[in-house]
Amino acid sequence: MHSLETGERKVLIKGGRDARYVPTGQLIYVLDGSLLAVPFDVAKLEVTGGPIRMAEGIKTSESDVTGAAQLSISDTGALVYLPLRVPGLRSLVWVDRDGREEALTTEPRSYGPLSISPDGGRR
Asked: Considering the chain, what is the average pLDDT of its residues?
């Protein structure tokens, strides 16, 4: 927590990333890929109970600088998040100009950036 009035800083949750206050009276945050919620007293600016696990497999930023969780929560409590996937394993699909997808017969693996050769003869 960081007070804009006094400049005071206070750690509320050790190790948590991307904490957000939600109108239902909790702080939500991500720790080791899990979304957790703790009760929070806005008047006292302190956590008033233990964590409850809400979801698992939340993707966070690749950067250790921000640690931003790839999620958003609405004022009504609707939650959307980007799930954590197995690092590097991807499957290829061909998508035509009309948006139709066709799976290619390749094994899932760690593909890098892809491009299509204009004449079809180069990779």
From this structure: 81
